[in-house]
Amino acid sequence: MNTTSQTIYAFNAHSDLTSWYVVNDGVMGGLSGSKLTLSGDHFGVFEGEVSTKNNGGFTMIKHNCSISDVKKYSKIVLKIKGDGKTYQFRIKDDRGHYYSYVQTFDTSNNKETIELKLSDFKPAFRGRTLNIPSFAKSTIEQVAILIGNKKQEHFRLEISEITLQ
């Protein structure tokens, strides 16, 4: 592995948030709601309410990208300010796949750097781990952040940047 990094997304004063998509559990009948906005200090702010009513319980933001040569890197690094809750970071090597490679991470209430080893991303679909190998692909076509902790809760995650290292 080399020591260089590749930016997947960095929020700044000129960020075009239309390249991000919000997916709430309403696609399955749920009542959760969220949004992605840009804060005054140029963080992407993913916040909202997770509702477990009506068989709901998740919300996520996703961003399509086109990254090759992923095998040069060993981890995804998130620079964030959390809220003490647990989130999932999700990657797809092919946007057409029904499943994602998933890893959970816990946050504090401080600015922090989260490192997620690529080899620790497990394939999953609708909360179930699949019986296929862990992530070892050469491309990433989509990244996403999901919250779904099986409880009603307000959340707020501030994101500065997402990089491969």
TrEMBL record:
It comes from the Bacteria. Residues 10-159 form the NADH:ubiquinone oxidoreductase intermediate-associated protein domain. It holds the Pfam family CIA30. Belongs to the CIA30 family. This is CIA30 family protein.
